[in-house]
């Protein structure tokens, strides 16, 4: 639009110049001056139209990506998002990818930098990133991904599936009743189920609360084992492994970033772990009912294109969910623990 105005100003300058020449040159008739003026106006219109067409075809975008922490699931979601947007916009999009290294305060700093930069859209990868983005701007479109429950994350009462305002996105919520069913299928004789999670992650609390209710309906005894951050994950996991028959870990970013610590405690103790997502299962679990985080990120990228290219109103866009869920198992851990996996499970690729 700025280039169109500039073109019109240049054209008007040409008109003024031609008119001035007509006044100073006695040999130039009024008819000739009028014809030149009309030609100049026509040139201005054509130039402005051509400039606008180039602008429409060549719009460029900057997308800020705030990812809470590096681990398999979140990395896959970010890559899926970038692939979806990049396939369509190619060199016309720039991604500013920043990682908060697991710190919610750093998420806020990253979001503030995106706001100052006035990016065209923000991708908030994981709940703390979404919360920071929501607090940081109510104008720039925000898409969340790898967020389990938006109503919980954003403290929305009676959440109906649409956040409204400048926020939408995708959810990584797998069927929690299905995860409880998986525990019963694999460990029907277990008595005590430990729910291991990070208390600082609101969506983790939501998941363990929900799974606990399902498991208690099936006759299991459930106990919470909450760690506040990575500093106490070892001691809390050790306690859980000494008191439980099976451990359940929800989709939890802190746990996902510390699977080696958890595995080194639970595997030697002979305690199997059922996980809420594939990355955790691959690192320390035996089985999971999981989604593809790459596909989830890709779907989020398609939402971004609808906002940036099609002008879709983000305030009316409902949260989207993964369409497919797969039963998967960690072959090495199952073999080490002597667990026989029934048909219908897919081995996690190493």
Characterization of the model:
Helices cover 51% and strands 18% of the residues. It is α/β, with parallel strands linked by helices and 350 residues long. The strands form two sheets. It has a seven-stranded mixed sheet with strand order 7-6-8-9-10-12-13, with helices on both faces. A six-stranded parallel sheet has the order 2-1-3-4-5-11, sandwiched between helices. The chain is elongated and about 60 Å long. Helix 1 packs antiparallel against helix 2. Mean pLDDT is 88; it is low at 1-30 and 32-56.
Highlighted features:
13 strands; 6-stranded parallel beta sheet; 18% strand; alpha/beta
Structure, briefly:
This protein is an alpha/beta fold.
By DSSP (H or I, 4+ residues per run), the number of helices equals 14
Strand order of the largest sheet: 7-6-8-9-10-12-13
* Unreliable stretches covering 5 or more consecutive residues: 1-30, 32-56
N→C terminal distance: 52 Å
Task: Round the Cα radius of gyration to an integer and report it.
Answer: 28 Å
**Element-by-element helix/strand order:** HHEHEHEHEHEHEHEHEHHEHEHEEHE
What coarse outline follows from CA principal-axis ratios?
elongated
Note the main sheet: 7 strands, mixed
Mean pLDDT: 88
Percent strand: 15-25%
Q: How many E-type strands?
A: 13
User: How helical, in percent, are the residues?
Assistant: 40-55%
Based on secondary structure, the structural category is alpha/beta
């Amino acid at each position: 639009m700025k280039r169109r105005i500039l073109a019109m100003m240049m054209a008007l300058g040409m008109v003024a110049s031609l008119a001035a020449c007509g006044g100073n040159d006695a040999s130039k008739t009024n008819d000739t001056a009028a014809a030149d003026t009309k030609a100049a106006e026509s040139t201005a219109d054509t130039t402005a139209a051509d400039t606008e067409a180039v602008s429409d075809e060549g719009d460029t975008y900057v997308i800020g990506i705030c990812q809470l922490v590096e681990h398999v699931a979140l990395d896959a979601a970010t890559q899926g998002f970038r692939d979806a947007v990049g396939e369509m916009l190619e060199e016309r999009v720039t991604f500013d990818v920043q990682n908060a290294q697991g710190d919610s305060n750093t998420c806020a700093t990253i979001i503030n930098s995106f706001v100052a930069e006035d990016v065209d859209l923000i991708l908030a990868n994981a709940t703390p990133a979404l919360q920071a983005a929501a607090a940081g701007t109510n104008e720039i479109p925000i898409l969340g991904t790898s967020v389990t429950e938006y109503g919980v994350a954003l403290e929305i009462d009676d959440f109906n599936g649409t956040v409204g305002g400048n926020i939408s996105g995708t959810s990584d919520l797998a069927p929690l009743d299905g995860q409880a069913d998986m525990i019963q299928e694999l460990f029907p004789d277990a008595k005590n189920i430990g729910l291991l999670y990070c208390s600082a992650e609101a969506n983790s609390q939501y998941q363990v609360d929900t799974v606990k209710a399902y498991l208690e309906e099936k006759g299991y005894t459930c106990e919470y084992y909450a760690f506040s951050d990575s500093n106490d994950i070892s001691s809390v996991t050790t306690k859980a492994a000494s008191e439980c028959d099976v451990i359940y870990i929800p989709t939890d970013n802190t746990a996902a970033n510390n699977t080696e610590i958890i595995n080194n405690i639970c595997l030697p103790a002979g305690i199997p772990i059922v996980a809420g997502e594939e990355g955790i299962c691959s690192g320390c679990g035996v089985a999971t009912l999981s989604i593809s985080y790459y596909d989830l990120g890709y779907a989020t990228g398609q939402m971004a294109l609808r906002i940036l290219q099609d002008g879709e109103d983000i305030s009316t866009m409902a949260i989207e969910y993964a369409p497919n869920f797969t039963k998967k198992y960690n072959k090495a851990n199952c073999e080490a623990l002597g667990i026989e996996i029934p048909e219908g499970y897919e081995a996690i690729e190493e």
